[in-house]
Automatic annotation (TrEMBL):
Keywords: GTP-binding, Hydrolase, Metal-binding, Nucleotide-binding, Riboflavin biosynthesis, Zinc. It catalyses: GTP + 4 H2O = 2,5-diamino-6-hydroxy-4-(5-phosphoribosylamino)-pyrimidine + formate + 2 phosphate + 3 H(+). This is GTP cyclohydrolase II. The keyword Chaperone does not apply. Coiled coil: none annotated. Its cofactor is Zn(2+). The keyword Hydrolase applies. It comes from Kitasatospora cineracea. Pathway: Cofactor biosynthesis; riboflavin biosynthesis; 5-amino-6-(D-ribitylamino)uracil from GTP: step 1/4. Its EC number is 3.5.4.25.
Length: 223
């Protein structure tokens, strides 16, 4: 049973936008995108989540905004780790949404909600042969503890209740729908596969039904 199937119905919270800050973003292809970063007060969890709205300066933004829920990944987003595809997905999202209009929600959910130190401990178990979900369970942690209630709250505060969702993860769409967001289309992200992250991506496709076209399996033994 998924998190979305067990969660309570959406509740009204006394949340509000705390501040909106213009920030030009330099992309790795050399382009610059105008963005606005929104902070929040009173969300249903205490994380310092950020909404990055993009493409608002375009004369013809898509009437249904494109939205990406991106979970924080220090190793991938900042350090360029090749063990995951988080960094390339974040850059892709900013570039694509800057073209069509919409936002990236940068959610403080390191390691699918287990935190940075635990994620690095899980990496050691993965090096010993565990897959990414089994490693979490070996540490007596949930395979994926992320809840997207705060993301739905952020979208409502931004007036984005009807969206196209940029994701390969069906659970994100299911949870947003459960929390009252109308996901009219799911737009797949790119598949950024390397020899370092292939087994990780294969596991996501096998265990949580991520829509990933990966070609031939790597053949690594998973515990």
């Amino acid at each position: 049973m998924t998190v979305a199937e067990t969660m309570p119905a959406t509740e009204t919270v006394s949340a509000k936008i705390r501040a909106t800050v213009p920030v030009p973003i330099h992309l790795n292809n050399g382009d610059t995108v105008a963005a606005r970063l929104h902070t929040f007060h009173g969300l249903s969890d205490p994380g310092e989540h950020i909404a990055i709205t993009l493409g608002e300066d375009r004369p013809d933004p898509d009437p249904v905004p494109l939205v990406r829920l991106h979970s924080e990944c220090l190793t991938g987003d900042v350090l360029g780790s090749a063990r995951c595809d988080c960094g390339p997905q974040l850059h892709e999202a900013v570039r694509r949404i800057g073209t069509t209009g919409g936002c990236v929600l940068y959610l403080r959910q390191e390691g699918r909600g287990i935190g940075l130190y635990n994620k690095l401990d899980a990496y050691l178990l993965q090096d010993a042969g565990y897959d990414t979900y089994a490693a979490n369970e070996e540490l007596q942690l949930a395979p994926d503890s992320r809840d997207y209630r705060a993301a739905a709250e952020m979208l409502r505060l931004l007036g984005l209740t009807r969206i196209r969702l940029l994701t390969n993860n069906p659970e994100k769409a299911a949870q947003l729908a459960r929390y009252g967001i109308d996901v009219v289309a799911v737009v797949p992200t790119g598949v950024f596969v390397t020899e370092d992250n292939r087994f990780y991506l294969e596991t996501k496709a096998r265990v949580t039904r991520h829509t990933l076209a990966l070609g031939e399996p790597a053949g690594r033994l998973a515990r």
